[in-house]
């Protein structure tokens, strides 16, 4: 090795030891008679000292070193005079006796610090430099620790990690497929898997009753902070289980991660809320339950008083901001403008201040007396000193807007503490949702999700009322994972395809092999898939999964470092039997 120690391990106990370190020059400080250099590697930072009195030529040479030069130094560990309590190595420094330049560096295009001056695009273009920053290094170390903990837990639970193929058949699963042309099979294409869904069910049919995989998945969809065209999934499946069995095992895994990674266990058993209840209480199937401020319907209390905003609305709902009755007009105007944004979609906001004196002040005083408004406050759980915020309109749109308003108010009131974690299971989703554009039902999750037994008789008679035996794990308003008990009989699976509008020919073409497998003894089975990148981002305290992926794409799905996707040559196109159209 070119070093005896790393830049993060030397302490006072090493004082007097001759050492050799290697790393990158982080900072250089010329103090006249002395030069100080912070040397950085993956493990930390160690301060180097060059003394003009003892080794003047060496000290002069050290001043020629630029940022990000790679060097090797030989020296002696000594106690540092001005200690740095913010560094693990802050009690010591290295008195350098010799050094060698191992690699020179141009001036980096941005400062390689936690608070960098580089924008997103430039940092993605020079990602190998960005990855030198401590914050990204810690995120990748966190990702590694979580992956190892997941494998450790599932291995102890008897799961086998089994790889599944990346070059598969294109099948409809909700998002667009990435397709790969086949040179050996003219005019035919593979697809990259959106998930290993069919393969893990086939593994259950094959008798491997506990499967998992940390696996890459690919979806050609519009991107945002928590989406990438390729992402990592913790994919799991079990045989001879019901919903409670699956939830028990993966509550255990979640708590194991909380304990091993964060030394924090939120709860031994997570609360469960049905989809319908989540929508009525929080306006979303991904509720953040770290705080209250639940939605309360006011529709029957506000209609018929001559106020068009209420009288013409299908639904009126409120949230109670505890202790916010003292908000200024400027603050109320700002939150009113917020709800009018297109991404929220409300026409306006009605507020009621429930004063400490027990009276009400509101934006609709001319239409409603004090007693009426107090009744709203009491119904919404407001006390003197609280602020009631009310939206009205169509039921679906208003609940959605209230859910966004609820999160925004919690942010402004400081209620979304990043170090507090509140997991919740959302269950009993609708099995189908109606696609207005295509005038047909589509699967809310995927076409292999089993209906609840008590709703099975409605599958072809009234599909819109069928609930799925499905479940999502939500933590702090982030959907971390989702799964279901699967259909395990050919008859029910064929009914599902019919409701989804597949012809017999389409079923046979796309899923014939899968239906055939049902004929050879299929066990009841179910599973779950977690977004590994999202889970790491949650633990890292960042909203963007790009910050926990080594080499991510930008919002247009481009790799700016490699400049891909890119064009291929005419000879490659000819070999693949592909001709491009303008």
CATH class of the largest domain equals Alpha Beta
Low-confidence stretches: none
Return the domain count.
Answer: 3
Helix content: 25-40%
Structural class computed from helices and strand pairing: alpha+beta
Radius of gyration of CA atoms, rounded to a whole number: 30 Å
Number of helices: 16
In whole angstroms, how far apart are the ends? 55 Å
Assigned CATH superfamily of the largest domain: Bira Bifunctional Protein, Domain 2
Strand content: 15-25%
With strands numbered from the N-terminus, the spatial order across the biggest sheet is: 6-9-10-22-21-20-17-11
Q: Name the shape in a single word.
A: globular
Mean pLDDT metric: 94
CATH topology of the largest domain: BirA Bifunctional Protein, domain 2
The name of the CATH architecture of the largest domain is 2-Layer Sandwich
What's the story with the biggest beta sheet? 8 strands, mixed
How many E-type strands? 22
Secondary structure layout:
Layout: E1 18-30, E2 34-41, E3 44-51, H1 56-62, E4 70-79, E5 92-103, H2 120-125, H3 127-130, H4 134-156, E6 160-161, E7 179-181, E8 189-191, H5 197-205, E9 210-218, E10 230-239, H6 243-262, E11 272-274, H7 275-282, E12 296-297, H8 299-302, H9 308-311, E13 315-321, H10 329-339, E14 350-354, E15 360-362, H11 370-379, E16 387-393, H12 395-412, E17 423-427, E18 432-435, E19 440-443, E20 470-475, E21 478-485, H13 490-499, H14 504-517, E22 525-531, H15 532-540, H16 570-575
């Amino acid at each position: 090795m070119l070093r005896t120690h790393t830049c993060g391990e030397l302490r006072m106990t090493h004082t007097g030891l001759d050492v050799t370190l290697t790393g990158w020059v982080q900072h250089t400080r010329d103090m006249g008679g002395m030069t100080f250099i912070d040397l950085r590697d993956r493990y930390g930072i160690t301060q180097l000292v060059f003394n003009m009195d003892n080794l003047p030529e060496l000290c002069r040479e050290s001043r020629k070193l630029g940022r990000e030069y790679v060097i090797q130094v030989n020296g002696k560990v000594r106690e540092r005079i001005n200690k740095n309590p913010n560094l693990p190595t802050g009690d010591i420094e290295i008195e350098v006796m010799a050094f060698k330049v191992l690699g020179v560096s141009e001036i980096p295009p941005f400062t390689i610090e936690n608070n960098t001056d580089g924008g997103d695009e430039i940092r993605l273009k020079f990602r190998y430099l960005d990855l030198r920053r401590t914050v990204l290094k810690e995120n990748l170390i966190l990702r590694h620790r979580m992956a190892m903990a997941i494998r450790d837990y599932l291995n102890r639970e008897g799961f086998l990690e089994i790889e599944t193929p990346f070059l598969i058949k294109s099948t409809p699963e909700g998002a667009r497929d990435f397709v790969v042309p086949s040179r050996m099979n003219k005019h035919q294409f593979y697809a990259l898997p959106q998930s290993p869904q069919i393969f893990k069910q086939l593994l259950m049919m094959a008798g491997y009753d506990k499967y998992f995989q940390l696996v890459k998945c690919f979806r050609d969809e519009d991107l945002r902070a928590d989406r990438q065209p390729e992402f990592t999934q913790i994919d799991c499946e079990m045989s001879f289980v019901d919903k409670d069995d699956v939830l028990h095992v993966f509550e255990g895994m979640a708590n194991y991660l909380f304990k091993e990674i964060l030394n924090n266990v939120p709860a031994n058993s997570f609360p469960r809320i049905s989809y319908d209840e989540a929508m009525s209480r929080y306006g979303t199937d991904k509720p953040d339950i770290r705080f209250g401020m639940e939605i309360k319907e006011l529709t029957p209390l506000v209609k018929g008083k001559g106020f068009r905003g209420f009288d013409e609305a299908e639904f009126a709902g409120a949230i109670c901001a505890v202790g916010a009755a003292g908000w200024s007009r400027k603050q109320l105007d700002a939150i009113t403008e917020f709800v009018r944004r297109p991404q929220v979609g409300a026409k306006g906001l009605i507020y009621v201040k429930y004063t400490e004196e027990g009276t009400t002040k509101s934006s609709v005083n001319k239409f409603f007396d004090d007693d009426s408004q107090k009744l709203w406050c009491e119904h919404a759980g407001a006390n003197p000193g609280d602020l009631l915020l009310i939206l009205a309109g169509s039921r679906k749109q208003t609940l959605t807007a209230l859910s966004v308003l609820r999160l925004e108010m919690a942010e402004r009131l400081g209620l979304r503490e990043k170090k507090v974690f509140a997991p919740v299971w959302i269950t009993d989703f609708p099995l189908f949702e109606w696609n207005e554009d295509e005038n047909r039902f589509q699967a809310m999750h995927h076409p292999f999700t089993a209906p609840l037994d008590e709703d099975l008789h409605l599958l072809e008679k009234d599909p819109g009322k069928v609930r799925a035996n499905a479940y999502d794990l939500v933590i702090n308003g982030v959907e971390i994972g989702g799964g279901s008990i699967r259909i395990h009989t050919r008859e029910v699976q064929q009914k599902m395809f019919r409701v989804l509008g597949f012809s017999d020919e389409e079923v046979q073409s796309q899923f014939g092999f899968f239906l055939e497998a049902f004929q050879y003894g299929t066990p009841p089975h179910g599973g779950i898939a977690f977004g590994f990148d999202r889970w790491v981002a949650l633990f890292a305290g960042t909203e963007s999964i790009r910050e926990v992926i080594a080499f991510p794409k930008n919002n247009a799905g481009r790799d700016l470092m490699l400049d891909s996707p890119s064009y291929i040559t005419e000879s490659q196109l000819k070999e693949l039997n592909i001709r491009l159209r303008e």
